[in-house]
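We include the pair:
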Amino acid sequence: MSDRNVTGLDGGARPHGFGIVGTGVIASIHAAAIGALPGARLMAVTDVVPERARALAQRHGCAAEPSLGALLGREDVDVVSVCVPSGLHAQVGVQVAAAGKHLVVEKPIDVTLAAADRLIDAARAAGVVMTVISQHRFDPGLVELRRLLSDRSLGRLVLGEASTKWYRSQAYYDSAAWRGSWALDGGSLMNQGIHYVDLLRWCMGPVAEVSAVCATRDHQMEAEDVALAVLRFRSGAVGTIVVSTAVFPGFAQRLEISGTGGTVVVEDGEIVCRSLRAEGPESGQRGSRAATSAAPPGGAAVPQAMDAASHAAQIADLLAAIDDGRRPSVTGENGRAALEVVCAVYESASEGRAVVLPAAAGDEHDPTAAGDEHNPTAAGDEHDPAVSR
């Protein structure tokens, strides 16, 4: 593993050197996030399309390496962002781990659980730290929502709903052969919706059963552009997932969490509704944002519009984990748990039946119960972003 305890010319600790593998759309977000952190410096990028790597390198003042091997051979790189197509995350990530480099893996961790397990095992065997991007866990609204869950302010959880109604043109899917393919990408749920799938599970707890339907209604692609699922959580609460890239013009991502003590609604990382019984019937914000004909926010319609701030917060947490010798707030296992739900949705839709998910060791029955993995004060979860920022 790369030695972090290296001093710079000024006698201080050297910033973590980063490399990026894959220089498509999301790589620019990683580069901007790295550039925003005082403890990080982008040293090199690489891509199978050399001119694309050179263009990103020129914009960010770093080297463009001709191959993954060349990038991994650099002594000034100790953390690597894996930004290749989703179905190649494990293949590339295993090589990164074997080279002793820490890992930032874009979502999803991969497109199959077997691949996810290979990557998790490789990082563990190499003794490197890995985080899977779930940057919205660091959004202000989610941090506050998790605090309310930890305080039991929502009571016993009843219903959770995750909605990602975005729009992608056919040109988006035509821009690269891997987009929308089962082998390398998946559809709207695996690519765009997995963020809020992760947030739903993070807030509501482990999923016990999934019933789903999927369809391809507006695009020429292998995978789906519409997915609907009904979930039963191990706590007994229920939930829904609605995801599409065929909803014009695209709308804010929405997470609604309701319990016996009240409801919190988050849109694009901000709380837009907070109504708690303990605070009285007139307290908090009510309803949602007013309807508007203005351009949709963030990446709802344009992938390039995504902001880098939450990526930077998650990468900063990874660097703190490396320096402090702890696990990051978002682990490979967390990434696998979100992927497991997505895979269950696809299996249910394909086979026309409910899919029962296996109980993981340590799963609790209620995220609001003492000792649950979703209680930031529980043993082993002290670095939860709900309380560490």
